[in-house]
Structures are given as C-alpha cells and as structure tokens.
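Course assignment 3, question 2. Fill in each field.
Student: A.L.
Task: Predict the tertiary structure for the chain below.
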Amino acid sequence: MHEPLPIPHSVAAQFKDWAVTFEYSYGPETSTWQLNRDQKTRYLKVARLGWEPSLSQECDRMHWASSWLPVPKVLDYGREEGVEWLLTEALPGVVAVQEELMGDPASLVPILAEGLRTFHETPIQNCPFDFRLDQALAHVRARVNAGLVDPINDFHPEHEHFNPQEAFKELEATVPATEDVVLCHGDYCLPNVLIKAGRVSGFVDLGELGLADRWWDLAVATWSLTWNLGPGWEDLFLEAYKIDVDLERIRYFRLLYDLTS
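Answer field:
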C-alpha cells in the first residue's frame, strides 16, 4: 500500500475549511482526494510530473468532451512541488463498482454496454486527440525503447510469457488491416463509469480519450467485466452493445493496452 500524494499547499490553503477524504491511489504516482463542504463535492487528482497520461492531457480532453458527454467540469489545474493537480466538480451517480450494482451483473452489464455505445456515437470530425494505430504503435515503440515497460507490473497473466520487445513485435506482426474509428474512452473499466437511475450518468479518468478503433474500448471493457464481476459476462456486453465478437481484435487491443501505460 503506497502513501498517497499530499494535497499541494496552494490547494490546501484554498480548501482549508473543507472536509478532506482520501479516495484512492494508482501506485505511488497518482492520488485522488474528495473535498466536501455545504453539500458541494470536488475531486482533486494529484500526479507526479512525468506521469503518463499527464493531468494536463486529461484536462484538455475533458474540456473538449464536455460539449458532447457527461464528463467532470474542470475547475482548476496547476503545477507545484514536483506534481500537477486537477480539480473537478463531482458528477451525479455512483461508480459501477458499487457493491449493490455489482451484485446484479445481469442488469449492470447492459447499462455499461449502452453507455459505451453512447460514448462511441460522439461526433469526431473536430477531435484533436488521436490514438489510431500508427500513433499507438509509435507510442509503444518509444516506451519499449526507453525501457518504460515493466512486464512484471504492466502485463496481465495472458501476456506474461512475453518480454516487452517480443510483445511489441507481436503487435507489429498482427496489425489489423482496417480500423473502425470512433471516439474512445481509452480505459473503459467499471471504476471509470458512473451510474444513476439505471443509466450511465458520467465518465471519468479521461486522460487517454481519443480517436481509435472501437475495439480498443470493447476489448478493455469486456476484460474489466471479468476482473470485477467474474467470467461469463462478455457475451452479454457485446450483445447489448450490438456487435459480434471479434476475438482477433480483442487479443490485439488487450496486448496494446498492456504496453501503453
């Protein structure tokens, strides 16, 4: 268990009269805090400078996506003391990993699928964020060459037989011939989806939002179902999303996911 990154001094001074609750950390590099006062809730994400995706990138993506999707409203962003921080308003709803929701997977899974379908229907003509395969492979190549891929901590069991160089060669050798490009979330996992009244009410953790093949999201979303709900729910998700299973793309984009961050 890692110690959370502290709230930067300038933010702490601004919210000195607010109740502060630690929410979660992603390793030692990022931490999220909840701030409450007078029935108002804010979320503060703190990350070490150099962490990817940066909070600056996430800030830009939320500003752009706010015209189309229920994403957190950005209130402030800053850098100090070797970290950057991002302050947002709370969204309505509860995260999809809430115990009551996960206790009824047959109801939850179609809601998540319909939410992703809505995300993918966002107009993309003016989207400035690109993670199509050329860009994705260039990103992964740079990470592998820089020694930033740690198979022990980054790879799921399906890929533990690879070293980073072998995994990248596999990606290069099996690139899909075509791309079905939509606006992708980039990390459509249960903890990143909010639900209210039987519908998706918001999307969070948007640092990897961008144009990509829809299977980038579908592969990770179905994987997340198994991590959080146990095996057996992927077919229902794809049925509710209204798409036939594509095992080759699922395998490809799950490997890409492990090499990306």
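Instructor remarks: Residues 47 and 158 are 29 Å apart (CA to CA). The mean pLDDT is 95.
Grade: pending
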